[in-house]
Amino acid sequence: MSRTIAVLGGTGAEGFGLALRLAQARETVIIGSRDAKRAQDAADKIKQRAGANAKISGMENAVACAVADLIVLTVPFEGHATLLKQLKTAFRPGSIVVDATVPLASSVGGRATRTLGVWQGSAAQETAELLPSGVFVVAAFQNVGAEILNGEGPVECDVIVCSDDVEASKTVRELAAKIPGVRAIDGGKLENARILEQITALLIGLNIRHKGHSGIRITGLPPAAYTGR
Amino acid sequence: MSRTIAVLGGTGAEGFGLALRLAQARETVIIGSRDAKRAQDAADKIKQRAGANAKISGMENAVACAVADLIVLTVPFEGHATLLKQLKTAFRPGSIVVDATVPLASSVGGRATRTLGVWQGSAAQETAELLPSGVFVVAAFQNVGAEILNGEGPVECDVIVCSDDVEASKTVRELAAKIPGVRAIDGGKLENARILEQITALLIGLNIRHKGHSGIRITGLPPAAYTGR
């Protein structure tokens, strides 16, 4: 299957790490940024780590969005809604938007160990409201820390995937499971994204308190529940 | 150290399982219930499983509360505030109240995969508001399912412990870590309990969707972060 994945906010640590892992998994990846030059620089750095055969490039956000089949959002929450409004006409019908955004209170000068209340219930549900119809929204990757993604080792974290579209959820679970160490789990409807988003604030708190790079594993489910086990 | 632990709501599945595990860990445990007879019946059943030497008895809630050093709340959220108001004068200064309550929407006829918004931020913070001063509130055990506690095997779930009192938190972490399989982790202040409570709704959703008995493990922290590793 030939597909193109755009990582918007891919010059940030989280987006960079995710783009790196997806490029290492032989996916075709575009780093999206407000600044095409910065996006290209980040893509060059990923090429150095993932190898010369890595299919990675950099583009301005709207251009990246328009050519991609699957778009990952890793922008800070303070720029989240504004970016989606700007890009509204760039999304192609049938494309999948994977939202990894967490509404941390640090977006408005508060603590990264707390979240903001989002009227729609979660950042991912806000995304669903702002996107044109025909685009599928999937919540995933919130709990995988940037340091872990940018490290060399396997990612010791499960990725819980929430979406109102069963097929889009499956596509993203299969994608996530390509990252070594990741087990992807169907977390049900998009409304459950609010819990995934809050877990990130908990993990950030644990990282600060215990000086670690925490992740989560879900125990006690039958093997079939884990994609990429 | 001689101490008495009361499990209020200990005739319910979660409280029963927790009382069983604590009795098996050689703690002195009292099952608390509205009905002393039902409490005693539950205690007898635990004695059958934990052995004749198990220090387990059953009492009416207020009596159990008055003689205990550490009180665990495992009551459904619909009875949570009412019980605390009833017992207000029964709590002894210096005692520790461990709140495992989750404000599931099923308390008001909704789904157990969703939580209610609690004005104070979490059920545990509501508890802190309702208890007399001098009683220490600790949030813990929300994410350990009743089926797992009542099973025979080790508990494949970490217990994240949140409290505004450092010593009370440590006491509860050491207690939790006595349950085989449990690793207890300092989760910081009581306000973080809201995230633990929401994780339970997520786990219930995963249990229904995937037909399992799920729990969580936190990865990526240094060994010192885990009590009872």
Structural overview:
The structure is a homodimer of 229-residue chains. With 229 residues, the first copy, chain A, is an alpha/beta fold. Chain A is 38% helix and 20% strand. Chain A has 8 helices and 10 strands. A 9-stranded mixed sheet of chain A has the order 3-2-1-4-5-6-7-8-10, with helices on both faces. Chain A starts with a strand and ends with a strand. The A-B interface holds A 113-114, 145, 148, 156-157, 160, 185-188, 191-192, 194-196, 198-199, 201-203, 205-206, 209-222, 224-225 and B 113-114, 145, 148, 156-157, 160, 185-188, 191-192, 194-196, 198-199, 201-203, 205-206, 209-222, 224-225.
Mean pLDDT of chain A: 96
Largest interface: A-B, 39 and 39 residues
Instruction: Figure out the total of helices of chain A.
Output: 8
List segments of chain A where confidence is low: pLDDT < 50 over at least 5 consecutive residues. none
Share of residues in helices of chain A: 25-40%
Secondary structure topology:
Two copies of one chain form a homodimer.
Chain A: E1 4-8, H1 13-24, E2 28-33, H2 36-50, E3 56-60, H3 61-67, E4 70-73, H4 77-87, E5 96-99, H5 123-130, E6 136-139, H6 146-150, E7 158-163, H7 166-176, E8 183-186, H8 193-210, E9 215-219, E10 226-227
Condensed summary:
Two copies of one chain form a homodimer. In chain A, 38% of the residues lie in helices and 20% in strands. The first copy, chain A, is built from eight helices and ten strands.
Tags for this entry?
38% helix, 229 residues, nine-stranded mixed β-sheet, 10 strands, 8 helices, alpha/beta, homodimer
